[in-house]
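Quick start: read one record
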Amino acid sequence: MKKTSARVVPTALLALALGFQAPALRAEMVATPDVASQQSPDAERAKVLQFMEQASVKERLQAMGVDGVAATDRVAALDQEEIHALAQRIDSMPAGGNLTTTEWILIVLVAILVAIAL
């Protein structure tokens, strides 16, 4: 009987130690779009509201006949998918004016005409 308990105790301790072993951890590279898509809903809503506070956006809303307070209330009523879509559209917008090739040619032609006239 003593021999049996001498074998059982170490075997049970070994089984307990292996059973409570922490799972193996892995380190992986994380792509930027994956991390960016995990923004909190509050951060995306704040981004949309901050965008709406810009003077040019307020002017455009007024030109369309939308009151700023009403627009803010509408943003507050949007669900998470709609806020996420708006935040993505804001991120994809160009930072400045986007001139086409035709517009550049016209600018250069006007500059040449002004230089010749002087």
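The radius of gyration is 32 Å.
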